[in-house]
Design a protein that fits this description.
It catalyses: N-[(R)-4-phosphopantothenoyl]-L-cysteine + H(+) = (R)-4'-phosphopantetheine + CO2; (R)-4'-phosphopantothenate + L-cysteine + CTP = N-[(R)-4-phosphopantothenoyl]-L-cysteine + CMP + diphosphate + H(+). By secondary structure, this protein is α/β, with parallel strands linked by helices. The protein is built from 14 helices and 19 strands. Strands 12-11-8-13-16-17-18-19 form an 8-stranded mixed β-sheet, sandwiched between helices. Strands 2-1-3-4-5 form a 5-stranded parallel β-sheet, sandwiched between helices. It has a two-stranded antiparallel sheet with strand order 6-7. The chain is globular. Bound molecules: ligand PMT.
Length: 398
């Protein structure tokens, strides 16, 4: 099969060092990669790095007489199947939005008529500037796909929005956007994400380590497949997903009420949330004062949302997760049966690099008919894609 051609445009930001891994990711997955760099990008990482990783010459100057092609930007644009700008500075975003062509990067991008993907990474103040927002809106109107930066530790030494997502997540985002997707048009899917919080008093609560990343990735992909998605989520630091109905809840009982209210008309529910099994029997109105010696807290059981839905279901497909620290396979099979599920994704949350909080996961999919499909460690976006693809087959009756 012919290799897919990706032109990777590299602009001058500190996140450029991570773009090197991005190039590797595409080469590793069988893409033919050609890179183009701005003059400022060359100040951060050398051309040689990208030539070595892409196994192709890097274009930096359209007037370089050593270029093999006399009209280099047109030749590159014609060769391109996908164009990726990573990291995308506020400057290249502005140039793309306005159609400015004054160097190898902006000129080649202007000449490219193929799908374009932009991964902005910059200081939070530049990101928040209305001009950047306006330019990004213009790009989106032109059909350019934009992967928003993450909140994280910036080069300036503080936490804010502006950090470039990890290369594996960028790869997964592009493949999810560019590869054929199942159509979930006319399907209503409820996804749950994050951990529930059970209050003890006005200042204390019982919680867990779920960040919502897995559930948000599932909701984003299901929505990209055309489904009408409701994301019922516990407290998270993640941004609302465009085009998805966002329902914010705190406790397990609130999550149950929000899911149950939408269940009858739903086609499927994916429960990725880490729901607290117990809550304090009494929530104190005032802050509980310290006592000398031990303090006992009485907990009562919360509803098992998925198990209740398993009993209520008529036509709906139910997808659950099993977060286990031991006997993963045995417990997963039991949960699939006990909760009357169609599909269950089992993850071993005792592993540090997957499960709670990490950008990656590794799951085993258990089906009602006894089939098992292992999904090797990959970004949560990629794992979400595989789970939703399997759900789409179940919804089609396959
Ligand atoms: O949010 P992240 O940081 O990305 O982490 C992802 C994750 C580890 C939370 C996710 O991959 C995951 O495993 N989610 C399920 C967590 C969990 O509660 O697992 P469980 O084995 O305790 O529950 C089994 C299933 O029943 C789950 O689908 C759960 O949503 C559901 N459940 C559990 C308890 C309860 N009272 N009601 C429920 O519906």
């Amino acid at each position: 099969m012919a290799k897919k051609h990706i032109a990777i445009y590299l602009t001058g930001g500190i996140a450029l060092y991570k773009a090197a891994s991005c190039v590797r990711e595409f080469v590793k997955h069988g893409y033919e990669v050609r890179c183009v760099m701005t003059e400022n990008a060359l100040k951060f990482v050398s051309k040689l790095t990208f030539e070595t990783l892409s196994q192709n010459p890097v274009l930096t100057d359209l007037f370089d007489r050593n270029n093999q092609n006399s009209v280099a930007h047109i030749e590159l644009a014609d060769w391109t199947d996908i164009a990726l700008v990573v990291p995308a500075t506020a400057d290249i975003i502005a140039k793309m939005a306005l159609g400015i062509a004054d160097d190898a990067v902006s000129t080649s991008l202007l000449a490219t008529a193929k799908p374009k993907y932009v991964v902005p990474a910059m200081n939070d103040k530049m990101w928040d500037n209305p001009a950047t927002k306006r330019n990004l809106d213009l790009l989106k109107q032109d059909g350019v796909q934009v992967l928003e930066p993450e909140v994280g530790f910036l080069a300036e030494g503080y936490q804010a929005k502006g950090r470039m997502p990890e290369p594996k997540a960028i790869y997964a985002w592009i493949t999810a956007k560019s590869s054929p997707k199942p159509s979930l048009k006319d399907k209503k899917i409820i996804v749950t994400a994050g951990g529930t919080v059970e209050e003890i008093d006005p200042v204390r609560f019982l919680g867990n380590h779920s960040t919502g990343k897995m559930g948000y990735a599932l909701a984003a992909y299901a929505s990209a497949c055309g489904a009408s998605v409701t994301l019922v989520h516990g407290p998270t630091n993640l941004h609302d997903l465009p085009g998805v109905e966002m329902v914010s809840v705190t406790s397990a009982r609130e999550m149950f009420a929000a899911v149950k209210a939408r269940f009858e008309t739903a086609d499927a529910v994916i429960m990725a949330a880490a729901v607290a099994d117990y809550r304090p029997e009494i929530k104190a109105d005032q802050k509980i004062k310290k006592v000398s010696g031990p303090w006992q807290l009485t907990l009562v059981r919360n509803p098992d949302i998925l198990q209740e839905l398993g009993q209520l279901k008529t036509h709906q497909k139910l997808v659950g997760f099993a977060a286990e620290t031991q006997n993963l396979f045995e417990n997963a099979k039991k949960k699939l049966q006990r909760k009357n599920l169609d599909l269950l994704a089992a993850n071993d949350v005792s592993k540090k690099d997957i499960g709670f909080g990490s950008d990656e996961n590794e799951v085993y999919l258990y089906f009602k008919d006894g089939k098992m499909l292992p999904l090797k460690k990959d970004s949560k976006q990629k794992i979400a894609q595989e789970i939703v693809d399997q759900l789409a087959l179940l919804l089609k009756g396959e």
